C-alpha cells in the first residue's frame, strides 16, 4: 500500500520507472494520484504528468521498443514538483509558436499555464522535464 501524503511537516519524494508505452500514461497518472490523494492539486498534477510522459514517449527514445521513462514526485510543505525523466532525443522541449499549434504543440503551453515554473535538465542522452506548482498545506487534525 502506498503511504499517503498526510503530514504537512515532511518533504516526500517518490520515484517510479515505467515502460515507454501509451498504456503507461494512465499508470503514471495513477502513481501521482496514489500519493497526493484527494487534494485540490491532484487534477493538475495528473494533467502535467500526462503531458510530460506523453512527450517522453512521443519525442524521445523512451518511446522506442524497450524504452522507459521515470516519474518523480516531490511534495514539500507548500510546493509540488512533478519531473519526468526520458531517454533523450536530438530535439529539445520548447514552447511551440502559434502557427505550429493547430494540431499539436499545446502540451507544454498547458504545462506553462498550469504551473508556477517548468524547466529542463540534461541533454540528448537523457532529459528531465520538471514542473513546479503550489501545494495547499494540509492542516494537522486536532
Ligand atoms: N521530452 C522531450 N524531449 C525532446 N523534445 C521534446 C520533449 N518534449 C517536448 N519536446 C519538443 O517540444 C515540442 C513541444 O512540445 P509540446 O508538448 O508542447 O507539443 P507536442 O508534443 O508536439 O504536441 P501536443 O503536446 O500538443 O500533442 C515538441 O514538438 C518536441 O519537439
Ligand atoms: Mg506534447
Automatic annotation (TrEMBL):
Record domain Histidine kinase/HSP90-like ATPase: where: 18-131
Keywords for this protein: ATP-binding, Kinase, Nucleotide-binding, Serine/threonine-protein kinase, Transferase
Organism encoding this protein: Nonomuraea phyllanthi
One Gene Ontology term of the molecular function aspect: ATP binding
Pfam families cross-referenced by the UniProt entry: HATPase_c_2
Protein name: ATP-binding protein
Keyword Ligase in record: no
Listed CDD domains: HATPase_RsbW-like
